[in-house]
Amino acid sequence: MPDPGPKGPAPAPFLHTTQGRSRRTVGVMILAWFVLGSLVIVFRAAWWIVGVLAVFTLPLLVDIATNRTSGLRIADGRVSWFTGRHEAAMAIADIARMRIDIRLDQSARVTLIDAAGRKTRLPYECVPPARRLEEAAHAHGIAVDRRPFALL
Questions:
Q1: Which domain, by its residues, includes 103?
Q2: Are residues 80 and 40 in the same domain?
Q3: 151 — pLDDT class (breaks 50, 70, 90)
Q4: CA torsion sign, 29 to 149 to 17 to 68?
Q5: β-bridge pairing 14-19 and 86-91
Q6: Tell me: the pLDDT tens digits for 45-86?
Q7: How far is the C-alpha of 32 from the C-alpha of 67, rounded, in Å?
Q8: Is the pLDDT of residue 32 over 50?
Q9: Do the Cβ atoms of 33 and 57 come closer than 8 Å?
Q10: d(CA 129, CA 20)
Q11: What pTM was estimated for this model as a whole?
């Protein structure tokens, strides 16, 4: 069988990073505190009820205060990701397919499935927009299985 020759130039590396401190997270935090303040001032809500509701804003406050970065990189024959202090990688040759589940809120859940059928779910924080990820995966020769509107 003849040699097919070179496959062409290697695809450009794909890199996606996000930070905990963004305009969106700060805006959501300000809006949440404004609503809580309005409950106290306008509706004269009990302080302890507002305090219990304010506890739910603490994870957002921690994200803003620590400004943790997270990201995903597809390059050099590997898919690698990091979030906070955790990082992992998988060789592209080991990936049978990438499954992208689009949820009803339009967020994406990404799962890497290897040849043995083992599933590795990527952390939500490091997942880029689904279309960009799908294009990058195809460019790097990763089969993509896109499933719209998965509830879980």
A1: 69-147
A2: no
A3: low
A4: positive
A5: unpaired
A6: 999 999 999 999 999 999 899 999 999 999 999 999 999 889
A7: 19
A8: yes
A9: yes
A10: 16
A11: 0.79
Tokens 């809006």 sit on residue: 31
- Mean pLDDT of the residues in the chain: 91
Q: Extract the tokens encoding 135.
A: 């294009």
- Report whether 64 contacts 20 (CB < 8 A): yes
In a domain? residue 50? yes
When pLDDT is cut at 50, 70 and 90, the band that residue 105 belongs to is confident
Q: Are strands 144-147 and 95-102 parallel, antiparallel or unpaired?
A: parallel
Residue 141 one-letter amino acid? G
Query: Residue 104 domain-assigned?
Result: yes
> Within a domain: residue 11?
no
Exposed, middle or buried: residue 62 (CB in 10 Å: 0-12, 13-18, 19+)? Answer: exposed
How far is it, in rounded angstroms, from Cα 84 to Cα 69? 6
Residue 112 has pLDDT above 90, yes or no: yes
Decide: 87 and 81 in contact? Cβ < 8 Å: yes
Same structural domain, 56 and 82:
no
Q: Radius of gyration (Cα) for the chain, nearest Å?
A: 21
Domain count, the chain: 2
